Amino acid sequence: MFTKEQTLQLQHTTKTLLDHLQQHAAIALTDIESLRDVLRFHEYRYYIENDPLLADFEYDQLFKTLEQLELAHPESITPTSPTQRVAKGLTNEFPTAVHLVPMLSLDNSYNADDLLDFDRKAKELSGAANISYCVEPKFDGGSISLIYENDMLVRGATRGNGVEGDEITTNMKQIPSIPLSAKFSQYGLQQVEIRGEALINKNNFQKYNEQIVAQGLAPLANPRNAASGTLRVKDSREIKKRHLEVFVYHISDFTLLDGATVPPQLTTHSGSLELLWDLGFRSPQKEKKVFDSIHEVIDYCHAFEEKRDTLPYEIDGMVIKVNDVPLQEKMGMTSHHPRWAIAYKFKARQATSKLLEVTFQVGRTGAITPVAKIQPVPIGGVTVSSISLFNEEVIREKDLMIGDSVLVERAGDVIPYIVKSLAEVRTGNETPVVFPQLCPVCSGQLFKEQEEAVWRCVNIECPAQVVERIIHFVSKDAMDIRGFGEANVRKFNAAGLLKDIPGIYNLDFNVIGNWEGFGKRSIENMQQAILASKSQPLHRLIFGLGIRFVGETTAKTLANTVSHLLDLQQYTQEQLLTLEDIGPKVAGSIVHFFSNADNIAMLKELETLGLNMVNDKRSAPVSGGLSGKTFLFTGTLPTLKRSDAEAMAEAKGGKLLSGVSAKLNYLVVGEDAGSKLEKAKKINTVNIISEAEFLALIANV
């Protein structure tokens, strides 16, 4: 529908309008047609192509601006304005299905003030002094409509343009969570039209992407695009491959059997969700809440936003609906949205930006990590300007070029990553990302293991590696030298005062004491923390050394194996393989570390400086009811921090493993357990338990 030239021009206009909004918070009336054009374009990309070139929040900004312009200048409204209809979403690939009731969009809000204003308007429109609201998650997938007649599923359709959509009944019948029949007749209902959202579970989405990347195909951008695109696949078997699921959230229309009366459940929205749940549909019955106050609604929305990442599905907000159906009917709707419902959108997780350059960082193990520098962009309340690209293969998979427009997301509202490049809007001025052949710090040769994706600098004296090893050594989970964080390590190193790990214990505080920001008290605290670190248990020192593949659990295993740290010099790879949770890669890395003369010299120097090198009672195995049992924790536990749960297991004599194997007795699973859970399911001897079952086990031994 849109040519390459049109796409480039409309995307350029989009960025111009967004930049203007950011600077001036308004758009001139003279730009109203440009605003409508870009909205129509992005609706097409979203609903037809399932390949958006704009983040949802950015689209909402533009749409709200158009609404405000038309409200201030009603004479400017045209019949084809995006505010006067819902977005297009039809193709010629499927028959057209007319919805019994139009599938409208929802009005959006991003703060509590919007919800307070919604409450005020709802009371004015309904004439009610008090209103009960039903609040439920706003699932982020592909919208669908289902029709049941005489208890049988007779039609499934996409949202389309809201009035009519694509008829996809055959595809809908492949989704296990959609009943092929449901006993609506027991409630006196002959025909029912239901709204729902097709979704892909986060774990299933990740697995599917891994499969298609392994086939040399580009990964899908996100679960929403994957679900929406799957609805209209020609081969319905693909539905099962992608494990599509459906949540239903609204009964939009119904007709009664002769002589029947409206069932009481359908007089409230919450009652209709309960009815659907009882008939075997997946509705947000467990997540929905009914409140008599908009302030309670606001509190619930805020609380739900905090736990959005613990859910197995993507949600981008909450939907607030007037619970009383007669009041809904009294309030009515606009051509765009119902007046009795509003979506409270969570902080934006996506935005578009420009890739300015790629720099290359060197880690403590020599790993070369490409880092994207983008035009600073606010996402979820944080301005993002730097994003890890992990390795060279990621750059290739995402087809990234310097100068690209990119879609950026903050995973879990914490870690930013580039979802994809917007290759269709390239101007020809973009340049390839060139991965270095030599270390960007020491100019040493780079090396990559055949089975790995990471290039490494193999020069152990590389200054960047030295600094990163020191930062790891002083960190909280290693030697826990408080007040001696990354910034101070870099500062002391740059001044020539700290060149290696033993140098921590020989710092010249007479010099540091003359620096701004280092008063007498702060220096005393740092000196005390350095002194205290000398008595840390052996497993912390082993972890702090930064031996490749040796995590905290393996460090404890090694500490419990030897009487003195230097005993590990005598261990062969075969001997190490007999230890709990140590495989060939880990064993090889340990042997390599302890066969290096420079490393042994460093350890002897640390012992001379007074660091604990012996296996004392703090690292000895604990006897208890779980002695001999092994544990691994995965996913987000409902109430416990993972570190606390691990400590509880160890306190009862349990051992911790770092991976799933036949040696594992218990895998304790939380939300978003991922690949470890799937691997454990294939091993019959592993007991897969919940946090509650783990706590019961602890209590009974």
Automatic annotation (TrEMBL):
Entry annotated with the keyword Nucleus: no
EC numbers on record: 6.5.1.2
CDD domains from the UniProt entry: BRCT_DNA_ligase_like (cd17748), LIGANc (cd00114)
UniProt signal peptide: none
Annotated keywords: DNA damage, DNA repair, DNA replication, Ligase, Magnesium, Manganese, Metal-binding, NAD, Zinc
Binding site for NAD(+): 56-60, 105-106, 136, 159, 197, 321, 345
Similarity comment text for this entry: Belongs to the NAD-dependent DNA ligase family. LigA subfamily.
Pfam families: BRCT (PF00533), DNA_ligase_aden (PF01653), DNA_ligase_ZBD (PF03119), HHH_2 (PF12826), OB_DNA_ligase (PF03120)
Reactions that this protein is recorded to catalyse: NAD(+) + (deoxyribonucleotide)n-3'-hydroxyl + 5'-phospho-(deoxyribonucleotide)m = (deoxyribonucleotide)n+m + AMP + beta-nicotinamide D-nucleotide
Sequence ranges assigned to domain BRCT in this UniProt record: 621-701
Active-site residues, as the UniProt record annotates them: 138
Name by which UniProt lists this protein: DNA ligase
SMART domains attached to this UniProt entry: BRCT (SM00292), LIGANc (SM00532)
Residues binding Zn(2+): 439, 442, 462
Keyword Transmembrane listed: no
Required cofactor names: Mg(2+); Mn(2+)
Gene Ontology MF term list: DNA ligase (NAD+) activity
PROSITE patterns assigned: BRCT
Its job: DNA ligase that catalyzes the formation of phosphodiester linkages between 5'-phosphoryl and 3'-hydroxyl groups in double-stranded DNA using NAD as a coenzyme and as the energy source for the reaction. It is essential for DNA replication and repair of damaged DNA.
